[in-house]
Amino acid sequence: MDFLRHAYRLYNQSHIPFFAASLAYYALFSLMPLLFLLVGVFGLVLAGNEALLEAVRQRLSEVALLLFPTQPDLAQGLLKFLTSGAAPLTAGSFLVLFWSASNFFAALAYAMGVIFQTPPGFRNRLIALIAPGALGLGLILLALGGLSLAFILRYLPPELGFLRGSLEHVLPVLVTVGLFYLTYRLLPRPAPRRLHALSGAGFAALVWEGVRLGIPALLPRSQYELFYGPLAGFLLAMLGFYLSMWILLVGGLLARVLEDWHAPKG
């Protein structure tokens, strides 16, 4: 009971709902420059491929004539903007994306500092600058690993077919545990002990997996759209981001509580 009282007191002192909402805002804000970055990359691809450009122009002209019959040059103007402004749009979007992602990790480091009662410093800002690139590299490696795993599982012999379902369900959870564990070990200083960080990461990963599976069942998007219409997707994304950040911070809180609970008394 004392353990739960201490956890509840730290939960209130750390303002976890407030920080979860702030982190969700930063994460959602990062999607806009990411969208512009994808548009810029698409423009670069179009500028270097005449056949693809002509095919897109033809399809886009057909759609534009159906939607805007009074503006027949709309498709041509849009493609001209995409191809001529692709380079500055891509560069600008990348810089804004890096800036917003850096702010997200700086806010996350600050929230972890509040949970573990460590003052913010230059190290946290340095991690915030490095983390976006490391995250991008990690996502690329995860994608390559996923493709390799899918290729291996596809050609498994029949007698090892039971591994396919097991790996497909267990590996995502293990990756989530690893990401949470690295967050709890790298951001707060002094870092919690490995076992405590792993306990917090395991708890957070299991809760996150439960939320990931439970939200579609509890809030079917088809029914949600009856009330909110086109805003349903945006609201569900906000809810998903908020719950993800809340779970991440609660896992860190558990690691902090375990640190306090096993600290030498006196």
Task: Tell me about this structure.
The protein is mainly alpha-helical and 266 residues long. It has one domain. Helices cover 84% and strands 0% of the residues. The chain is built from eleven helices and no strands. Helix 4 runs antiparallel to helix 5. It is globular and about 75 Å long.
Write a concise keyword list for the protein shown above.
globular; 266 residues; mainly alpha; single chain; 84% helix
Quick recap of the structure?
The chain has 266 residues and is an all-alpha fold. Helix content is 84%, strand content 0%.
Which helices and strands occur, and which strands form pairs?
Elements: H1 2-14, H2 16-29, H3 31-47, H4 50-67, H5 74-84, H6 86-115, H7 122-154, H8 162-186, H9 194-218, H10 221-228, H11 232-261
InterPro entries: Virul_fac_BrkB
Organism: Allomeiothermus silvanus (strain ATCC 700542 / DSM 9946 / NBRC 106475 / NCIMB 13440 / VI-R2) (Thermus silvanus)
Subcellular location: Cell membrane
